[in-house]
Prior knowledge:
This protein is of the alpha/beta class.
Amino acid sequence: MKRNLFIATDVGNGITCIEDAANVFMYLIQGTERVLLFDTGSGIGNVAEFVSTLTDLPIYVVVSHGHVDHASGSYDFEEVYLSEKDRDIFPELTKVELRMEFAEKAASMAAEQGRPTADWGKSDFTPPGPVKLQILENGMEFNLGGRILRAVSVPGHTPGFTAVFDEMTQSLFAGDCGNPSTFMFLKECTSLEEYYHALLHLKEEYGGRIKHWILSHMMMEVPVGILDELIECCETVFEGKASGQNFVFDFADMGSEDAYFVYPAGVNQLRQDGHLGNIIYSTKKRWKEGRDENKSGIYGKN
């Protein structure tokens, strides 16, 4: 079975989910005067041209982080917003060769699961070129006309990871900052301790306001209770009670042999106990750099 490079799904409230050829979700959020595109996907096909078939309004492009599957379509636009803390990894992780490798891996996984795959060739990958990187800062507001979106810094998956909160629908476009198998073992990830405090801060600032938790992989939305479960995951690791199996990640030398699920997961990377939040962490990156693990205090607070 074959599918288009991009698939658009209207999910209501002026929000369109765009699934790219590598099965990664981007979101187009519309106001009365402008739209905002959250993430630019894997860079397979020209996402800017596709978005132009959905709207003719001026566009803000916000990239959550610098990974290949979320930032590679940035070269299709003149200007994108990205955290300064992810500027170093952006050019390295959006190379055409890496995008092609990611596309091949995604197609292989889709075929194994009996899902449609897209036909693509090297000409479908926009080569890296001039793109104006605007600084994306925590708390920055994007006024779309009758709709305010706010940048929310959640360092962990990458140092500069930034989610977006939609005031109108009380939706957090969380992307990879918290999902059913949050990657916290990659070379560019922060320590688990830093991620833990970012989650606590997110809960303090937005916990009572978030009604929808929106993802970029596997499923569009999960219950907001995933935030508490991710916090619990961190604490389980700190207490030495993690029980999950080793995780092998064989893509582009980005991973670590020292990667483990906090809780046991099945082949679909979902927890076996029926709960939602899980983290794949590295035992070598539990605590902030320079901290003496034996004197870290409870959950790294001292």
